[in-house]
Amino acid sequence: MKKLVFLLFILSAFVSAQKKTITLDEIWGTTFRAERMQSFNALNGNFYAVLNYDRQTKSTSIDKYDFATLEKVSTIFSNTSRTEISSIEDYQFNNDESKLLITTESNPVFRHSTLGKFVVYDLKTKSIVEVDTDFIQEPTFSPDSKKIAFVKNNNIFIKNLESQKTTQVTFDGKKNEIINGVADWVYEEEFSFVRAFEWNSESNQLAFIRFDERQVPEFSMDIYGKQLYPTQNVFKYPKAGEKNAVVSLHIYNLTSTFISDISLENYEYIPRIKWSKDSNILSVMTLNRHQNDLRLYFVDSQKSTSNLILQETDKAYVDIHDNLTFLADNSFIWTSEKDGFNHIYHYDKTGKLKNQITKGNWEVTNFYGIDEKNKTIYYQSVEDGSINRSIYSISINGKNKKRLNTSIGNNSASFSKNFQYFINTFSDVNTPTYYTLHKNSGEKIKDIITNQNLKNKVAEYNFSAKEFFNLQTKDGNFNAWIIKPTAFDASKKYPVFIYQYSGPGSQSVSNSWLTTNDLWYQMLAQQGYIVVCVDGRGTGFLGAAFKKMTYKELGKYEVIDQIEAAKELGKLPYIDATRIGIWGWSYGGFMSANALFKGNDVFKMAIAVAPVTNWRNYDSVYTERFMQTPQENPSGYDENSPINHVEKLKGKFLLIHGSADDNVHVQNSMQMIEALVQANKQFEWAIYPDKNHGIYGGKTRHHLYQKMTDFIKNNL
Question: What global pTM score does this model have?
């Protein structure tokens, strides 16, 4: 028997030896790229459109497909047949799908915003009309399809597609002073929207938000480029405790050409506006500066009056969402954490609660919509475990709940407009992205994209399993995963490299397919490292109490959890407790620096990429949501910022930043560098010129990951 076991071990080792080892060239190349459905849009009836690119002809087309059969119905537009359009970067339809708004050229403004050139293609007449000769922002069809509103030079314009006449709506827009109709930097980044105007259903009123930035302090970044002298990017950036833009709400009446100023009470932010089913009733969400008092108002545009419909308060903060959905009678669907977990609620048009639709010690993670005819709601949740996502249907009265997916892992749905069909996008730790077509009952009709070739490709490599487990420390029981070396021998001791992000409401331990970082971890595992990830306190999808317990103390409990996790891992017989490292990016970089300094007897090394080193340096909306202001909570800011703990550094430290990071400014790292120098601490650092928070472009990512790999090999 022993001989047989030995032979099987030898055979297994031989098979493993025949498999490939992964390289950085492959990680940052196309070797492991999954096939995807690009720019998917549900159309009227049982149809959808996707953007297809033909590599051979180098042409792009917008193609229409039948949901029921997945068969291509027609090519709606192709740039091979219309040579006046050289490229199609994105597209959107008008309501009756008789027109296409095509993005032909775009340039980034910040992380989510762009300036672009746009044309309107009429499907009936085959005519093409340029929206504007200049670069513009956020062009949007009116519901009647006769007009397009857009923003240019911080002012709102409306183009009449019938007369081709363009009308300027606002006139006071000026860079770094007044913005009309698009968000300022901090709203874009932290409230997750760019377009700050909305058409009503009758297409005769346009609501918009105005941002007065004149009192907001400016931040500047040098852009080095290849020119003799650098240029400077100057923009308004409200840091914690500093002045925000003064935001105000306005409604433009296209008939009278009059702009109404809407008065609201006790607010700092207007993070959402949305017209209801009544074309004269606009819904408006407001927040106070502490972001713990969320109010939903209904504004009567004819009377310029507002009524408070719903109010939610919290001892910590209230999260903003996009799930407000109006029904025909102007009752509405809403999601809230008010019972301790994120769930779906139904309110009547006066704001009176009709019923709580979903309940339980689990979170709703996505609201897909409601089939009002059949009174059925579709949503995504973590009912099958917090590291998984499943799709459910439920009646609006909270009954007849049904899970629509059969495979447990990461499921997400794209429904047809009439909710008769959906395309399920599934992956788990062993399965690359898998697209399937289903009826709304969950019944599978057919496969769309299986990515079997990618799965076969991965099988050629000597990859280790990613194992999920719960890690118990003195402070809690946390979700975790581990990747062991490919030739793992439990009788040996291995170094451990910990990855984490740890930000409020985030999740890094997820039962989903390989990310690019996962491929890098496989490469490290092939070189003899154990890689671990632990989601500690403050992370998401385990209820509001777990997430919000870090309130006013960002970086305290999360760092304790990573230090204690490392200690527990160090007790395992196959782990070398003297060789434990940690790394992270952004919030994760803040965490890894803190962990190395505060856990200097636990961690041998750390890598911090684009970290916040002092919470006083970061933006007002994000930081104050979790910390209040520095004036109100100085100890919370100072005791948990790594820049104030540099004297504790014992291990090896690598600090990396992009010089053009408009989100987490390189100022954070420059101040950290100076603090480390004055503390006479040796460390390594790298600045990537003109690179933003993502630090990418050309060979940049390859260079970055080679630098980090070399640092790990030399110091862990």
Answer: 0.94
